[in-house]
Write a structure and sequence with these properties.
about 130 residues; alpha/beta; five-stranded parallel sheet; about 20% strand
Length: about 130
């Protein structure tokens, strides 16, 4: 359900509708206790486990195709850095994981529960 709200608000944001994307963001914050802004890029096939409860994604973050994002996941920047994480395709981010800073996560990666990732991760890896 959360992904449908995001898709609608992202479409409105891309077409420069002024108020509705912010309204959808506030409503999803109240309903799902998460922050997935319309300006971030979630490609096709992205799903949220347990309705995306507690998920926080940076406004400039890019998440690749067919990724699974668990509950209470944070994908965000670091103080003093403009760059934000870029997540590859087919990535599974398990519950409570934190991905912080100007890093790249490769394709076919699994990030374990409560992992804190602050360095680049190559393709086909498991981080725990």
């Amino acid at each position: 359900m959360l992904i449908h709200w995001y898709r609608l608000s992202h479409w409105l944001w891309k077409h420069h509708v002024p108020v509705l994307p912010k309204l959808f963001w506030r409503l999803q914050y109240l309903l799902f206790n998460c922050s997935v802004p319309a300006s971030c890029t979630l490609k096709e096939g992205v799903t949220f486990a347990y309705g995306g409860i507690g998920v926080v994604i940076h406004a400039r973050c890019v998440v690749g195709r067919h990724c699974l994002i668990g509950q209470n996941v944070t994908i965000g920047g670091k103080s003093g850095w403009y760059e934000v994480p870029i997540i590859g395709d087919n990535v599974e981010i398990c519950a409570g994981a934190r991905i912080l800073g100007p890093i790249r996560i490769g394709n076919n990666v699994i990030i374990g529960a409560n992992a804190v990732v602050v360095k680049d991760v190559p393709d086909n890896c498991i981080v725990a």
